[in-house]
Write a structure and sequence with these properties.
By secondary structure, the chain is mainly α. The chain has a domain of about 100 residues. The protein contains 5 helices and 4 strands. The strands form 2 sheets. A two-stranded antiparallel ribbon has the order 1-4. The longest helix has 19 residues. The protein is elongated, with a radius of gyration of 52 Å.
Length: about 210
């Protein structure tokens, strides 16, 4: 980061500093640390810092810091109109003391010329190396580690069976029955009068043709 000209600000908290756990836990009054470190609003001046340190009275701890933090609007030099200033590094140290403070450009918030601890980052408290040097045999569980105790329910060994829903049977529509087609003479119901007229007409025609 610093090689590219960035303003790097790193704080590392060790356990039991200021009565807090430190380590990988979020620091106490963490949002005050963020506001103070990033300079979201202007950092407090020396008058406000002096008033705040007097309020804490040398009792480093998160609860005392929070109590004075809630009263900052009434402390001398801390009010900025409708808001209050961002706590300085000295003010934040009253909540929890960071073990390492690295400020690449000497800035904490909008304050300049702030001195850090001149310490490099802490190395992890564990053993590690290349894959050629380390293997899985070096990973050992704690002495008190062991299998789970208590009642362990057995898994159901029954084979699941499927019960599909019955498929409704659809009755096919009846195919219309085709009567066989036969050839033959049609029988007509003709009255005797019409039949006689037809026969008479036929006989007259035959006589005319033979004349």
């Amino acid at each position: 980061m610093t090689t590219e000209g960035n303003d790097a600000r790193m704080l590392s908290f060790a356990p039991n500093t200021g009565g807090n756990n430190g380590g990988h836990e979020f620091p106490e009054n963490g949002f005050d640390w963020l506001v103070g470190c990033l300079g979201i609003v202007d950092s407090c001046n020396t008058t406000c810092e002096t008033s705040f340190l007097a309020c804490v009275g040398g009792n480093v701890g998160s609860e005392k810091f929070r109590s004075c933090r809630e009263r900052m609007g009434t402390l001398n030099g801390c009010s900025m109109g409708n808001s209050i200033c961002a706590p300085t590094l000295n003010m934040m140290r009253q909540s929890e003391v960071p073990e390492v403070v690295n400020l690449s450009q000497g800035r904490f918030g909008t304050s300049t010329g702030v001195m850090g601890t001149a310490m490099g980052p802490k190395k992890p408290n564990c053993k590690f190396g290349s894959f050629d040097q380390e293997n899985e045999s070096d990973c050992k569980p704690p002495n008190n580690a062991g299998p789970a105790t208590g009642l362990v329910e057995a898994c159901d060994r029954s084979v699941p069976t499927s019960h599909p829903h019955p498929v409704p049977s659809v009755a096919p529509n009846p195919t219309p029955k085709m009567e066989p087609v036969s050839c033959g003479l049609a029988r007509f119901n003709i009255s005797d009068e019409i039949l006689l007229a037809i026969v008479g007409c036929w006989m007259a025609t035959m006589m005319f043709l033979n004349a």
